[in-house]
Each structure stands twice: as C-alpha cells, then as structure tokens.
Amino acid sequence: MIRIELPATGDEIAKLSVGDRVLMDGTIYTGRDAALPKLVKALKAGEEPINVMGAAIMHTAVSPAGIAPTSSNKEDIEESIPYLASRGVLVHIGKGKLGDETVRALKEAGAVFIVTPPTAALLTSRVKSSRCRL
Description:
The chain has 5 helices and 6 strands, in the order βαββαβαβαβα. By secondary structure, the protein is α/β, with parallel strands linked by helices. It has a single domain (2-13, 23-126), classed as fumarase (Alpha-Beta Barrel). Helix 4 links the parallel strand 5 and strand 6 (112-115). Helix 3 (75-86) runs parallel beside helix 4. One of its GO terms (molecular function) is hydro-lyase activity.
C-alpha cells in the first residue's frame, strides 16, 4: 500500500505504477458531470474556488445516501480531466476506461487516474465532512 498525503507532490505521483494500491490522507474534492465543467469555467475565468495544485478529485457526488464513484468517461467529466490536470490536479479518481487523448494529457501533466472499486459503504463511512464549493 502506498500512502499519499494530499495535496500530493509530483514526486509522490511519479513513484506510482499501474496496479499499485493507494491510501490517500487529506482533502479529496468531489465532482461529476455538472460540477467539473463549472470548475473548469471558473479557473479559466481567473477564479480559484479550490486550490487545485496537487489536488485529488473524485468523480462522484456526495448525498445523504452516501458516496460512490461514477463513470469518469462521461463526456462532461472526461473533457474536464486534461484541463484540470494541466492546472495542477494530480489525482483523478473514478471508474471506467478513459480515452487515449485523456491518458496522454494525464501523462504530460504528471497526473494519474486511480480506479476505485464499487465500495460505497466503505467510502461513506470515511467521509469526515462535506460542503458545496461551487
């Protein structure tokens, strides 16, 4: 198990290999089809609703029912990944297969895509707090 303290550093991410099991400690932002394009738009407008440098973003929505990953290859989500990676988001967490262009963009930015299994009950039990930023 490889432990990563968030916000992550490029050196920590560079040490990861396909198949590594990762334990992250720190703030993990969440967003999905509606939120991630809003974040991209805000960053392009010069706003910074969150500090994206070294950040981890999980492709999901948090609700009273719990938290679970959503498919990262949904158009609005996958289209946001290259830009967010170029701005400093180093860890993208979700499920599904990403397109070749997105994978190239992640490599160029020194970022990674971490696939999480369907573990809604476990993830929900680990949420310490949640609030809406956008």
